[in-house]
Amino acid sequence: MRVDSVRKMNELLGKEFETNNFGKCFVIDYKGRNDVFVMFYDPVCVVRCHLGTLNKGQIKNPLVPTFYGRGFMGIGKYGKSDSRAFSLWRSVLERTCCLSFKERRPTYKNTSVCEEWLNFQNFAKWCYGQKLLNAKDDKGSYYQLDKDLILKGNKVYSPETCCFVPPAINNLIRSKSTSARGYPIGVSPHRKTGRFVAKVVLFDKNKHLGLFDTAEDAFQVYKKAKEVHIKEIAELWKDRIDSKVYQALLNWEINISD
Fold it and tell me: What is the C-alpha to C-alpha distance for residues 204 and 224, in angstroms, rounded to an integer?
């Protein structure tokens, strides 16, 4: 190491610096202006940086939550340049940690994310381990990250419960209940007769299943038609979806409370 570098190292070692938004840190090693190592106090973290950036207070502690109050970048090889994984992660955090989003989308009111995935490094590593991360359907649309197909009713985004599925399947099992009006899914009142109509969407087309005396009878017919259709779709996509997704579709049950 040159004399001026040794002098600079002796000058900087142990010196504290105040950052703009991440508290104080101090220098623990100096190998050159482009190779300065500092340690943050809280949370404890070692970061490599440029001396100019350090002097301006612009270095960041990757363990401090800066995304929706809970998510943090973490220490590792993944960054914002991993755009697909990063975009998905931001979306998960918005759905689970953003109160204003949950007010706009009440169906996400009780949705959460596992502690492991608050660290972007863990989420990105999981994503790149999924063979369908960059898969697209016949229309060129990316497969979507789903949390409640493998485990129906699940509200937690986690490695154990999430999978990538084509939009067609995600929409297929998404509940569009009319329960807000007091009727089971797939059922609506027939105003002229006072009876109940059962309708189901099959291959993107509405199909009228008949009129029934009770909402329960109408629902049972809808349930049977929908479950048969889900199995048909499972067979069509069998070679382009995860085996766990395929099995979940074969076992899928429509409940009156959906």
Answer: 18
pLDDT at 52 over 80: yes
Q: What is the pLDDT of residues 146-166, one digit of tens each?
A: 999 999 999 999 999 999 999
Q: Is this prediction's pTM over 0.70?
A: yes
Per residue in 189-245, pLDDT (tens digit) is 988 898 999 999 998 899 999 999 999 999 999 999 999 999 999 999 999 999 999
- Distinct helix (H) and strand (E) counts, the chain: 8, 11
The DSSP code sequence of 56-85 is TT----TTS--BTTTBB--SSS--TTSHHH
Q: Which two tokens stand for residue 105?
A: 């989308």
Q: How far is it, in rounded angstroms, from Cα 149 to Cα 174?
A: 9
Q: Are 96 and 157 in contact (CB under 8 A)?
A: yes
Given CA atoms 108, 114, 119, 123 in this order, what sign does their dihedral have? negative
* Distance separating alpha carbons of residues 168 and 134, to the nearest angstrom: 16
SS3 27: strand
36-40 and 24-30 beta bridge pairing: antiparallel
Q: Please confirm whether the linkage preceding 166 is cis (ω < 30° from 0).
A: no
Q: How many beta carbons lie within 10 A of that of residue 34, not counting itself?
A: 11
Q: How many CB atoms lie within 10 A of CB 150?
A: 17
